[in-house]
Amino acid sequence: MSLQGKVVLVTGGSKGIGRAICSRAASLGANVVINYSRDSVPADALVKEIGADKALAVQADVSKVSEIEKLINAAVAKFGRVDVLVPNAGIMPLQPLAGTTEETFDKVYDLNVKGPFFLAQKAVPHMPSGGRIVFISTGIARNSAVPPPYLLYASSKGAVEQMTRVLAKELGAKGITVNAVAPGPTATDLFMEGKPEAMIKGIAAQSPFNRLGNPSEIANLVTFIASQESAWVSGQIIGANGAGFV
Ligand SMILES: NC(=O)c1ccc[n+]([C@@H]2O[C@H](COP(=O)([O-])OP(=O)(O)OC[C@H]3O[C@@H](n4cnc5c(N)ncnc54)[C@H](OP(=O)(O)O)[C@@H]3O)[C@@H](O)[C@H]2O)c1
Predict the structure, then answer these.
(1) Domain-embedded: residue 2
(2) What is the pLDDT of residues 101-135, one digit of tens each?
(3) Residue 201 covered by a domain
(4) Which of 29, 70, 117, 240 has its CB surrounded by the most CB atoms within 10 Å?
(5) Of 129, 152, 128, nearest to 141 (Cα)?
């Protein structure tokens, strides 16, 4: 499997799952565009690790359309096109219905839903046939045992899943596939934040493997879907969850 010479753009590519996707794509020969919003240090460190000729860090808040345009323009200015788009940046505030403000609702939907939608719209004109869009959903978008605080987050990823199925039909004519990877609980800042150790152990125990996923395990699936070997896979939501959400 190779991504030799491909241009892979990952939002939220500086940390967690996004960082693992950037590293894996680079190890398969890709040029990578590493987007982040606030913290330039890990993004710059990753560029150094991969090499400045093959990696570009771009600060952009991808919950805003004007910043999405800035990001795509920077990618095209450096590498000429986008072969693989991974709208990975996401947030997961945990509140049930009663505690959720309009501000929180807008924040979640702006980054988790509006961001991926307009990233696709702005990137597609720069994507050749053979292009790939790999959205990132979550196992809890389809699981009926999800507890109440996941209401807003799970609904935002439900929107991403239906976007995947419908957009795959529009972009098939251009030779671009559209899929989503749905990780289970994965050891990143987003997952760990605010959870006591006992809770983390309890969630890990929901997988028959009795552990959390690693970002690199999600990245392995994303880069397979990004490769030419996945050409006949489109419109699919593919889980990576150690049988935790079946
Ligand atoms: N971890 C899990 O258990 C899990 C499970 C299922 C699905 N997911 C999904 O996987 C994706 C990645 O999650 P993660 O756990 O790797 O998250 P993470 O560790 O919190 O990393 C988030 C990344 O997104 C960037 N980011 C945050 N807000 C941004 C914005 N407005 N614009 C651009 N970049 C932004 C961050 O950069 P800065 O720090 O510079 O802002 C960082 O690079 C998310 O879509 C999440 O919903 C995660």
Answers:
(1) no
(2) 999 999 999 999 999 999 999 999 999 999 999 99
(3) yes
(4) 240
(5) 152
pLDDT of residue 172: 98
Size of the chain in residues? 246
Q: How far is the CA of 173 from the centre of ligand 1 (A)?
A: 31
Q: Is 213 in the pocket of ligand 1 (CB under 6 A)?
A: no
Q: Give, for ligand 1, the residue of 66, 68, 114, 188 to mutate: max count of ligand atoms closer than 8 Å to Cβ.
A: 188
Q: What is the mean pLDDT of the chain?
A: 96
Tell me if 189 CB under 6 Å of ligand 1. yes
- 194 band by pLDDT with thresholds 50, 70 and 90: confident
For residue 63, the ligand 1 atom closest to its alpha carbon is 31
The backbone torsions φ and ψ at residue 238, rounded to the nearest 5 degrees and listed phi first, read: -115, 120
Structural domain including 138 reads 7-240
Please report the atom of ligand 1 found closest to the CA of residue 38: 40
Check pLDDT > 90 for residue 87.
Answer: yes
State the CATH number of the domain containing residue 22. 3.40.50.720
pLDDT of residue 74: 98
From 10, 36, 41, 113, give the residue whose CB has the most ligand 1 atoms within 8 Å, as the site to mutate: 36
Domains contained in the chain, number: 1
Residue 47 pLDDT > 80: yes
Residue 245 within a domain: no
> Based on the number of CB atoms within 10 Å of its own CB, is 38 exposed (0-12), middle (13-18) or buried (19 or more)?
exposed
Query: Can you state the angle between helices 215-226 and 16-27, rounded to 10 degrees?
Result: 50
